[in-house]
Task: inverse folding
């Protein structure tokens, strides 16, 4: 049976496998931006764009137990920073709310629903930034592959991994803050979906639940 267990242990990350990784994400200066840490390993269906392309490419071919430094340039991460995603709105647009620099919120834009960050407040003018907070950044991932397994047919159909806790349970890719009306119970793109707040940095924006998972 030694041969069999060896085979099992050496399943490589490839299309139609579910890979669980622990990661620490740092910027160019070595500051930690995000880490799987207490969330536990991030589980993703490989090849289904659950995570940013650079990280998905980085784990390809690895086996459980492997560690690796993965360098992800902006074009394989969250894109280049675009000045076109800056817009000015009058302070009055916020009504009774008091905007503050750094505040983030969802808004419908001509590019669809996006997370906007208040970048600057200059008198009566507020500058909103529609870039992802990691746009333009080179990402340094320290990853460890925790497990690799074959994907279940329903996972392939849904385009994301399922866990013991159900579709969005327990620390997997696209879970995190999904508790309470989690990603599988809301329609794609609807406000308040699981990817709308505090998503793990490694997770591709819109990746989670983008198939409008109906599993429950
Ligand atoms: Zn599902």
Result:
């Amino acid at each position: 049976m030694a041969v069999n267990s060896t085979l099992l242990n050496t399943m490589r990350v490839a299309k139609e496998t579910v890979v669980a990784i622990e990661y620490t994400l740092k910027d160019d200066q070595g500051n930690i931006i995000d880490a799987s840490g207490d969330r536990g390993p991030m589980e993703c269906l490989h090849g289904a764009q659950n995570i940013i392309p650079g990280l998905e490419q980085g784990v390809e071919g690895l086996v459980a137990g492997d560690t690796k430094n993965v360098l992800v340039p902006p074009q394989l991460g969250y894109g280049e920073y675009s000045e076109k995603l800056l817009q000015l709105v009058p302070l009055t647009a916020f009504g009774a709310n008091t905007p503050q620099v750094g505040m983030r919120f969802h808004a419908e834009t001509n590019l669809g629903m996006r997370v906007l960050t208040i970048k600057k407040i200059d008198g009566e003018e507020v500058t909103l930034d529609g870039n992802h907070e990691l746009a333009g950044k080179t990402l340094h991932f320290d990853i460890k592959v925790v497990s690799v397994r074959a994907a279940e047919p329903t996972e392939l159909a849904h385009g994301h991994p399922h866990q013991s806790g159900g579709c969005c349970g327990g620390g997997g890719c696209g879970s995190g803050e999904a508790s309470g009306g989690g990603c599988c119970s809301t329609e794609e793109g609807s406000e308040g979906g699981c990817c709308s707040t505090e998503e793990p940095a490694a997770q591709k924006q819109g990746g989670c639940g983008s198939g409008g998972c109906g599993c429950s």
Notes: The CA atoms of residues 33 and 92 lie 33 Å apart. Residues 2-9 form the longest helix (8 residues).
